[in-house]
Design a protein that fits this description.
Strand order of the largest sheet: 1-4-3-2
Helix content: 25-40%
Low-confidence stretches: 1-15, 168-176
Mean pLDDT: 82
């Protein structure tokens, strides 16, 4: 029996040094950083069954620990008001993950941090929001999928073309 190397493929690519290529993004962990739910009119809000007016805001924040390690936080704020503009509930969730970047071009850093990482975090944040609103006595709030590409473009535009959350608004240091 002979040992043959695995066939080259997207996960088995070798660098010129003969070492396997590093993954472009490694998720080390995911966690609830902050979760706040307020039901200011309870129990009256649970007795009245009126169609609420929902407001939802989503943003992505990043923080750099070292040249290749980042925290990416998905911030979701939701509120529901009665037709009379009285609050039914207020929810804020900051769901974050710690990631490391492999050897990627500088122009790929922003999309990996602000598009791909939030895409990985979103299903878990969505489940937390649905469970929280359900446990509070309301119908589960099922957040629709978010277009993180459009959100990334909007954040770039607001920050003058710099990756939001980077020190001094610059791109990450080192070969991220």
């Amino acid at each position: 029996m002979t040992d043959t190397p695995p066939p080259p493929g997207p996960l088995n690519q070798e660098q010129p040094s003969g070492q396997p290529a590093a993954m472009p993004l490694v998720m080390h962990g995911q966690y609830i950083k902050d979760l706040s739910f307020e039901n200011p009119r309870a129990p009256q809000s649970l007795i009245e069954q009126k169609q609420p007016q929902l407001t939802l805001n989503v943003s992505v924040q990043t923080r750099q620990f070292d040249p290749k390690t980042f925290e990416v936080a998905l911030v979701i704020e939701a509120s529901a008001l009665t037709p009379e503009k009285e609050p039914l509930f207020l929810l804020e969730l900051i769901y974050a993950g710690t990631v490391s970047m492999g050897q990627v071009p500088q122009e790929a850093v922003g999309p990996l941090l602000l598009i791909e990482t939030p895409r990985l975090l979103f299903p878990f944040a969505r489940a937390i929001i649905a469970n929280t609103t359900r446990e509070a006595g309301f119908p589960p709030l099922n957040v629709s999928p978010v277009d993180f590409v459009a959100l990334y473009r909007q954040q770039l535009e607001q920050s003058g073309g710099q990756i939001p959350g980077m020190p001094n608004g610059t791109t990450p240091v080192g070969n991220a």
